[in-house]
Amino acid sequence: MNTRNARIWSLENPHEELESQQDSSKWNVFCAISRGKGYGPFVFGEPTVTGFAYLDAAQLRLFPQLKESELNNFIWQQDGAPPHWNLSVRDWLNITVLDQWIFCKRPNDKDFVHGLYVHPI
Description:
By secondary structure, the chain is an alpha+beta fold. It contains four helices and four strands, in the order ββααβαβα. A two-stranded antiparallel ribbon has the order 1-2. The protein has a two-stranded parallel sheet with strand order 3-4. α1 (51-62) runs parallel beside α3 (87-96). The longest helix is centred in the middle third of the chain and has 12 residues, at 51-62. It starts with 27 loop residues before the first strand and ends with a helix. GO terms for molecular function: nucleic acid binding. This is Transposable element Tc3 transposase. InterPro entries: RNaseH_sf. It comes from Trichonephila clavipes.
């Protein structure tokens, strides 16, 4: 059993075990939204979304749908998940939408915590 996925809180039978299947079938779906339009959903065929699969979705599925006027008037924001922060993804974004993409730092990032103390919300 993968104990990161299951916790049993009970006064009864503290040694109960649950079977779980690793890499069980699941859907990974990506979509993008803008002020006036939604894009997707884009379904990933892989059980785990890698940086290369994420880059593929952006290059081959999402960006071809964006009009030239939209490409010059948007900011691409990501949450910093490992596929989003893959070096090939960052390199492609730097070429494609230079100065128009940001990522959200994760709470475990020391700069994020430091910012909370220096500039409280």
